[in-house]
Amino acid sequence: MTATYDALVVGAGVAGIRSALDLAGTGQKVALIDHSPHLGGLLVQLDKQFPTDNCGMCKMLPLTERESSSQFCMRKGLFHSNIDILLSTRLESLEGDPGQFHAVLRKHASFVDPTRCIGCGKCAEVCPVEVKSEFNAGLEARGAAHLPVPQAIPNHYVVDLDNCVRCWRCYDACPTKAIDFKFAERESFNILVADPDPQTTADLAEWLKKQKFPIEGPVDGNSVLERAAEGKDVRLLILDMSLSDVSPERVLSRCLELNARLPVILTGTPEQAEAARLLEQGALAFVEKPLDRAKFVPWLDKLYMRIVSDEIIEIDAAAVVLAGGFSCYDPSEVADVLGYGRSPGVVTSLELERLVSSTGPKGRGLLRPDGRPARRIAWLQCVGSRDLKKKADFCSSICCMISIKEANMVRRLTAEQEGGPAETTIFSMDLRVFGKPFQSYLDEAKASGTRFIRSRIHSIIPDPADPGAVRVEYLDDAGVLQVESFDLFVLGVGARPPAGMNELARAAGIETNEWGFCKTMPFEPARTSRLGVFAAGSFSGPRDISESLVMADAAALGASRLVNIYAPLRERRPQPEPEFRDVTRERPRVFVAVCSSCPMVESRLDTDALTRRLRAMSGVTGVALVDRACTSQGWDRIIDKAREVDPNRVVIGACMPYAYVPRLHELGKALNLNPALMDVCDVATLTALGGDDGEGTDSEVFSRLRMSVAKLLGADPRPTAQARPASPVALVAGGGLAGLTAALAVADHGYEVHLVEEREELGGLAMNIRRTLDGEDPVKHVELLIDQAGKHPNIRIHTDSRVALHLGRAGRFFSVVNTPDGPVPVEHGAAVLATGGVESKLYEWGFRVHKNVMTQQELEQRLADGTVDTAGLNAVAMIQCWRSRDEERNYCSRVCCQQAVKNVLELKRRRPELPVFVFYRDIMTYGFMEHFYTEARRTGAQFIRFSPDNPPAMEHRDGKTIVSAFDPVLGRNVEVHADLLALASGIEPADHSEIAEMFGVEMDEHGFLKEAEYKWRPVASTKYGVFVCGLAKGPANMEESIAQAQAAAQRAVRMLHEKHLASGAVVAEVRHSLCSLCGKCIEVCPYEARRLSPTMDKIQVDELLCQGCGSCAAVCPNSATILRGYSDRQVLSVIDAALEETV
Amino acid sequence: METPVRETDLPPVVISGPPKTGGLRDRLLELLPEGGNLNLCLTCGLCSAGCPATGGEDMDPRKFLRLVSLGQEDEAARSPWVWQCTMCQRCIYACPMSINIPQLIYYARESWPRDERPKGIRGSCDQALKTPTNSAMGVRPDDFTFVVEDILDEVRETQDACKDMEISINREGAEYFLNQNSREPATEPDEMVPLWKILKTVGCDWTYSDVGWAAENYCMFLSDDKAWEDVVRNKVEAVERLGCRYWLNTE
Lengths: 1143, 251
Fold this sequence. Notes:
The complex is a heterodimer of chains A (1143) and B (251).
Chain A: E1 2-10, H1 14-25, E2 30-33, E3 83-86, E4 89-97, E5 100-107, H2 122-126, E6 131-132, E7 141-142, E8 145-146, E9 158-159, H3 169-173, E10 191-194, H4 198-207, E11 215-216, H5 221-230, E12 236-240, H6 248-258, E13 264-268, H7 274-280, E14 285-288, H8 293-309, E15 311-322, E16 327-328, H9 335-338, E17 346-348, H10 349-355, E18 376-383, H11 399-413, E19 423-427, H12 438-447, E20 451-453, E21 461-463, E22 466-475, E23 481-486, E24 488-493, E25 495-496, H13 501-508, E26 533-535, H14 545-566, E27 590-595, H15 601-604, H16 607-615, E28 620-626, H17 632-645, E29 649-654, H18 661-671, E30 678-682, H19 684-689, H20 697-713, E31 724-725, E32 729-733, H21 737-747, E33 752-756, H22 778-791, E34 795-798, E35 802-809, E36 812-819, E37 822-828, E38 830-833, E39 837-839, E40 853-855, H23 856-865, E41 876-879, H24 895-910, E42 916-920, H25 930-938, E43 942-945, E44 953-957, E45 960-967, E46 972-978, E47 980-983, E48 987-989, H26 993-999, E49 1026-1028, H27 1038-1057, E50 1060-1061, E51 1068-1070, H28 1080-1084, E52 1090-1092, ...
Parallel strand pairs in A: 1-2, 1-15, 2-3, 10-11, 10-12, 12-13, 13-14, 15-26, 17-24, 18-19, 18-24, 19-20, 27-28, 27-29, 29-30, 32-33, 32-38, 33-34, 38-49, 40-47, 41-42, 41-47, 42-43
Antiparallel strand pairs in A: 4-5, 5-15, 6-7, 8-9, 16-25, 21-22, 22-23, 31-50, 35-36, 36-37, 39-48, 44-45, 45-46, 51-54, 52-53
Helix pairs in contact in A: 1-14, 5-6, 11-12, 14-27, 16-20, 17-18, 20-30, 21-22, 21-27, 23-24, 24-25
Chain B: E1 13-15, H1 24-31, H2 46-49, H3 61-69, H4 73-78, H5 90-94, H6 101-110, H7 119-130, H8 141-158, E2 176-178, H9 183-187, H10 193-201, E3 206-207, H11 218-221, H12 225-242, E4 246-248
Helix pairs in contact in B: 1-6, 7-12
């Protein structure tokens, strides 16, 4: 059967999850698959992220409609009513067209029945296999039977068949018979052998006796065809290439016509090369003859297990998002110089993350290989990046910040050690801190004591004087050779396309770029080469989390736009809001249902006694034992039994409480009762873990159920807040590239958009750019957008206009736009601020005085319009970071180095012999832009690094500018007599103070509009319902601005789609009479949900923003803040219930 | 402070127009594929960190390359540092941009008048040219034969495992033709024995020749193309004369 989804998301790392949540949030059904057996991708291995130095993944969870999704740590797992998650699943093929794709998925079996696995770990204990643990980056071993990640919920063991040695010890050890190696099915696995040589059949029959496979043969080609036509039961065909009566090709193709999934194994001599061609036609494998029994039998047996237990799933989907992530460069190939794999003190950055993690490899920690504490730790950047020899003419973009973060983590971890924090040293070339908050992060790291040395390392060797350490030589900043020893040397490994990229690209029918990452289209950063297939996260190039999420939103937006064409979101009927009865005035009547078929319940629990004890509790009106609560029949039984007693509280004792969240909604509808008055309590784990004899299990289970009853008895039965209707209109402020992109994206979803631009013309800063680094024409693109916006039936453009008034809250804002034709009132559900930035103004150093001094952008324009005559030039100088990354403006403007490289290439194209000198601090050509920096150097342009405390000096003489700077490589000054000097002025925010105040959003310390959370909510402003993108948010190039605009549009659509905005059941409230207005709760709220009222006499809670985390209640000195659903009395009574003597 | 500024008496490098053509740099750019990648330098310092000659004459490979890139090739080539390079190729081996610094050094050496090149290297090259053995130490054919036979006798007598060891000189048709650095027969003859033992253990069919056996080639280090060629030709002829299949050079 084929399931139908709106979208298929391939890859369940943070980007895939984000895309899936985006789409699910607008009511779309999503299939989310991942090839690994766990969610979360690489992030499950990283405890902390830069620049926040914490995790925060949960901030991706929906803020409204919270009940549709799980509401716990996302490192543990995710449930969402619109998302079906398929793990250990790969995309095999993708046929069809946008709007009607047909995908074939293969789900690898784990051989462990999740409904029976109790996570006891006995299988892993007995497994004799030792392979490198993926979770701990190979620093420890795992068995074939193993737990993929320690923290997942639910968490089941899996058997990795590829490494299994088929000893079946785990099968015998499993106490709940959860492991299934398909022993019973072997006898019906008919193998047909079509081989003229009777010896083959005879051998196979003998060899496979123990496996009990029925072997039939030898048969000739005609009888194979007959059997296939008759539909006789053949589970596997072994087809020899020397078959003569019918050609093997014919047999194969005919068999596959009749049964496309028939597994066929080809055998033949090595010379029978045509077999390779047949493989492509659908045979599973080619095995060389003579068959080697020792290899063939286990191989065939594993193949059998795969065939009978792998699941082929076919789905239809309108759009596809690929979020395959990236992998880390393996430095084994440079073991001879960098010592990785030879000196145990040399580790990769991922391995270091595991070493400092609390779930890291046992007995390792931050130690030298000889067990002594590691006190001197160094990082080496660009291992496998920025290296032509390793075919990596790109920058991996994230490693500089990762190493700085790791240095911070190490210093914090060792702060209490004798002698203070460990010494941390980072060896690098450029420090690529191009993200908005990164420069300050670097400054802090320097201030806290991490040493930064500008040198790549040639070789890392064991220290002859101290065998536990390694030794390196390097040039210090003064150019003097130094020798130094370190306890651990961390290789900052670069990014590579994900493992299995080629297979995925082939299956999805997409092209890759020259570095093997997914190729994307100009000005469409999330679009792949195949229409309807989008790229999220770092699948199209290395990115940090923040940018990956932006790309995930942009990809989701692309998918959503497409889905919307076939099944318009606006016309979809929302699920009717269930109406629950008000039980405020009723006496509590608790119904307790306990699942009696969880694996160990029967043997370890005295269910009669348990029922008796529960019935005796005050407030409990009914108790029922239910068989297999996890099945729909079991669930129906719960509903029936509950109806009999008409409860107003329900407790269910079962396994995996999180999995029951959607079920509670069903129950709520059936009983007309708010699911907030229901609780699921895990009794399965208790019965499983209660010691070998099960002693104490009864009272443990009873105690746990009693706690749940106490919790519900104390629950606030008042109905939750009424949902607010949302207005299906968006307001976009700013008509530049970002604003236009966002407006069109929202309007394509059928929502009305008001696009407001201050100036008389749309287009913004992008109209000044002649050419992108890739050679594309931005003006043409922006003109196209202007044209599309002008013609779009859903867009109203207001130029020469300003927003004059803005009131209201998310879902229902009211703004007034002052236009030349008078004020226009706009009622809207969401707003996107794309109010742009400006090129910084320069006044000093001859700018505007000397004609030969100009900004990089002016140089580009003048090269384009011919007002600079390159033929008359003798030398050109450029100075980067002219106004960026200093105290006044402590951020990298990102675009200036790209601009410089672009100008260098153009100058050198016209005059190859012209000396061009670029004075820089760090060249920030991150990602694939590094390639253009390489090309710029190839032309012979010279790049000279300067230090901010010793910037280049300038003197104007005879129409020339003499730029003089200290070259740290030569150790002496370089003097360039330049006819032309270009200064990188940088990006500054436009004046946002008015708009920020009006919209109630905050600005950051630089004057850009501030993100709600840089990492996890990158396009949300600090006010719910208002989104930010483009230069208004921070420096960005065009592709990045477009992606952000699409991300902001995606968030806006998500909001507009909600016909009603409802808060979660658990939100905080303030008892104003007890509140002393101390403001502590405002400081600790991680969601900015609290503020002081405009009248300054009340703390207000935005219940849409409040996520019920309880931080406010914890810090409130007067108990003035309470968390609905967690009152003091309720929590204390739960504790009492836990501690009460068992009678 | 990011960069310690060093006091330097050296005058600034002045750039006021396109660099002069026809120099060292152009030669490299013309002759090597991709110009030896000369321009691609990231100034990462990896070469200098791995170079045994770094620091000598206040020079290192990165600085040398930078001087050339900035058009100061005469100054670079004149530096006596060019004679400290051992041509070990550690720099190009690990350089992320595969920049051919050793080739650059070679050309720089070539730009020196022959009689100003270091006496030691020049003398060794000249010596090698003078004797058919190509020995930089002037070891003559008969000296070599004598030393080998003398040491062989000694080894046979003193070491049981070597009682039946055979060494051939000028044996035609042997599979391997073995070269030997002349430092060993001239000053440390015992040092030849370990290799003999290895070759015996693996059952190698090899021979010495009394001419063209000296493995070292100082003419290469001298950047004297003609002399280098003469030396190599003489050795090749020796190999071919004996009809050996492989020429095993231990340098």
